[in-house]
Amino acid sequence: MEHSSEQIHRAVAAALTPAPAGSLYTVLEPRGAICPEHGGYTSKGTRYTVGRGREIWTPCPECAELRRAEEREAAEADRLTRERARMEEMLGRAAIPVRFIGRSFDNYTADVPAQRAALTAARDYAENFSRHAHSGESLLMLGKAGTGKSHLAAAILQAIMPAHCGMYTTAADVIEMVRETWRRDSEKSQARVLHLLTTVPLLVIDEVGVQYGTESEQNTMFQIIDRRYRDRRPLILMANLQPTELQALLGDRIFDRLREVSKVVGFEWDSYRPQARRES
User: Fold this and answer.
1) 109: Cβ contacts below 8 Å, ≥ 6 apart
2) Domain end residue (candidates: 94, 115, 138)
3) How far is residue 159 from each of residues 112, 241, 257, measured CA to CA in Å?
4) What is the DSSP letter of 23?
5) Do residues 238 and 146 touch, judged by C-beta distance below 8 A?
6) Mean pLDDT in residue range 64-83
């Protein structure tokens, strides 16, 4: 049986046309309603014909907006809770000493030009850490004890979270972590410890120079610094030493690599720990 082109066009149009809304539901005439809290309002209704059928009327718009606001507030509170939990986890992984948690750029004492220069260098390093993470640019914080090196390093670690995770340790702890793997009953291998220290996005090593500086300790530090140097992973290293003293302690091989990729920040003002003790 042949069909005319007009019949074919009508059949195609009918197939592409959605079923009328009235076949599933009917829009009812708006009616007045009263909310116990907000008074009168206009409610819009829809009668659904599917199944047993039912009518649904819009609630008080002010009540609906309050519910939406409560849902947004609850969602934001949940987000903040999850964010705090994530930050606490990252702080735990970063191993920042409790004394330095909460230290920031804003609560760092910067009364003299040299202090302000150190603060600026630390703040700039944190703000541009994505670039440093790519290039491997590091920081050497060198100078007198009690001048805020650890404060600024902790501030950097906390400022780059949660986008980047870092780890705070001391030179003595690095040596101890490696030495513990030498014990027969150790659950960690030296390779595993070195992998952690060489792959964390930012490694902060404090108190360089406190360790004895034996050949074994120099080799351990060299492995860590050399691997991070080759893999372009940034490092913050702090010492109560001058550059020449650090070079003598670590050796020319390590120091040459550090000097090539690091910005040196000097801390040459007097310690503010005695003043802090007087004020406490």
Assistant:
1) 115, 148, 272
2) 94
3) 23, 26, 26
4) G
5) no
6) 82
Pairing label, strands 39-43, 31-35: antiparallel
- Name the residue among 34, 42, 74, 81 with its Cα closest to residue 58: 42
133, 202 contact by CB (below 8 A): yes
pLDDT at 29 over 50: yes
**Residue numbers of the domain that contains 32:** 20-94
| CB distance 174 to 218 below 8 Å | no
CA 87 to chain centre: 7
pLDDT at 220: 85
Rounded to whole angstroms, how far apart are CA atoms 27 and 46? Answer: 5
Residue with the bigger pLDDT between 158 and 92: it is 158
pLDDT at 210: 74
Please tell me the total count of domains within the chain: 2
Paired with 45 in beta bridges are 57
Distance, first Cα to last Cα, the chain: 102
Domain boundary among 52, 75, 94: 94
Single pTM value for the model: 0.64
Q: What confidence tens digit (pLDDT) does each residue in 106-152 have?
A: 999 888 999 999 999 999 999 999 999 999 999 999 999 989 999 99
Task: Tell me the two tokens of residue 191.
Answer: 């390779």
* Structure tokens belonging to residue 93: 């992984």
Count of CB atoms within 10 A of residue 51's CB?
Answer: 6
Mark whether 266 and 133 lie in a shared domain: yes
